[in-house]
Design goal:
The protein is α+β, with helices and mostly antiparallel strands. It has helices spanning about 1-10, 10-35, 40, 45-70, 85-185, 190-200, 200-220, 260-265, 280-285, 350-374, and strands at about 230-240, 240-250, 290, 315-320, 330-340. Strands 2-1-5-4-3 form a 5-stranded antiparallel beta sheet, with helices on both faces. Strand 1 and strand 2 (about 240-250) form a beta hairpin.
């Protein structure tokens, strides 16, 4: 054991030299790896590597300094030939290489950890945003579904109102026929008796009155404060190339002759007029329903300065195959306006057209009856 230790002491400089060479070479390779192949080394890098190598070099440098201290300088020899000089230089160089490699590696490792932490934080934030977006989308879907349910429920309600009004209109006509039949039970059957019982023109007036009543019910259902919202309705038919009102009703005044602009601005009701035609003429010429949500927003809509006070929303509905005398079809239109902006709107087109078709069919029937009764 003593011989081994003695041999170690005698060869300690050589052992330290080659250990320093090997460790310095490893430090050089480590530095190259850190600089060139960090993308491969980074995932496996440990901060302890460089620290262990630096500690080893410190130990070698310390041992070299201690061992070289009693060794006198050899005269007439260069620095590299002095005892322990190469070992100390290589140890210091290797120490520096490992320090640099460790500093660069540690820096990149810490930045990588920071980036990883930032990436994780960003990923968590993205997940939170996605979660919130999903919650928001789900809430919107629920809201839309609830609104769709409310809309569907409202449409069912409106259909119920429509059916009720149509049933009552049939009842009114049936009661009139029964009354006339009862009062003239002993009289001979005649055209006059049938005319009095069927009373098509009277039934047309009732139809227009009930149609405005149906819109009033809808207005109050939407806003309980709109009990006084007015509606005007006009049935226009072609006469000598011009639309003329043949039946009308104003809910507020109960008048069956509320329109005057067709006489004061007759040119705008001509079906061949291309200069600022009325909406009645336009819907007939275009063959489609025209819905005006805000009359004030339409250019050249009003005929005179008083109209903006009561004409704020309107629908113009073309009637195909309408026969005022029960025989000859002419072009015609049904107009309804109100004094509340936005009451008629595009989103309600399908329901409005359904409602108007039902009433127009019954109005057309009454005019067809006049072809039989005169």
């Amino acid at each position: 054991m003593t011989a081994v230790f003695q041999s170690f002491l005698q060869n300690m400089e050589i052992i330290a030299f080659w250990g320093s060479v090997i460790a310095a070479t490893a430090g050089f390779l480590g530095l190259i790896a850190v600089l060139r192949w960090w993308h491969w080394l980074g995932p496996h890098y440990q901060e302890a590597w460089a620290k262990c190598a630096v500690a080893a070099f410190r130990a070698i440098a310390a041992v070299s300094a201690v061992a070289a201290k009693p060794a006198p300088l050899v005269p007439d020899k260069s620095f590299w030939e002095q005892p322990w000089a190469p070992t100390i230089v290589i140890a210091v160089g290797g120490y520096l290489l490992w320090e640099v490699a460790g500093a660069i590696g540690d820096g990149r490792y810490k930045r990588g950890k920071e980036r990883t932490a930032e990436d994780h934080k960003s990923a968590i934030e993205d997940l939170n945003k996605a979660h919130q977006a999903a919650l928001s989308a789900a809430a919107q879907e629920v809201e839309v579904a609830a609104q769709d349910w409310e809309d569907a429920e409202f449409e069912v309600t409106r259909l119920g109102w429509l059916l009720t009004h149509l049933r009552e209109l049939v009842n009114i006509k049936r009661q009139r026929i029964r009354r006339v039949a009862t009062e003239t039970a002993d009289a001979r059957a005649s055209i006059q008796r049938a005319r009095d019982g069927l009373a098509p023109m009277e039934q047309v007036r009732v139809l227009l009155e009930w149609l405005t009543s149906l819109f009033r019910i809808q207005a109050v259902h939407e806003d309980g404060s709109r009990h006084n919202q007015n509606f005007r309705i006009g049935l226009f038919a072609e006469e000598n190339g011009r639309l003329m009102p043949i039946a009308a009703f104003d809910l507020a005044t109960k008048s069956h002759d509320p329109f005057t602009s067709y006489a004061q601005h007759a040119e705008r009701y001509h079906l061949d007029n291309n200069t600022k035609p009325s909406y009645a003429a336009r819907c007939v010429r275009e063959g489609r329903t025209l819905i005006v949500e805000d009359c004030a927003a339409e250019p050249d809509f009003f005929f005179h300065e008083r109209q903006p006070n009561y004409l704020r929303s309107m629908i113009a509905f073309p009637i195909v195959g309408f026969c005022p005398n029960g025989i000859s079809p002419v072009r015609a239109a049904l107009l309804i306006d109100t004094d509340v902006t936005g009451f008629f709107h595009e989103d309600d087109r399908e329901m409005l057209e359904l409602l108007l078709r039902e009433f127009v069919t019954r109005v057309d029937l009454e005019y067809a009856i006049t072809g039989l009764t005169g």
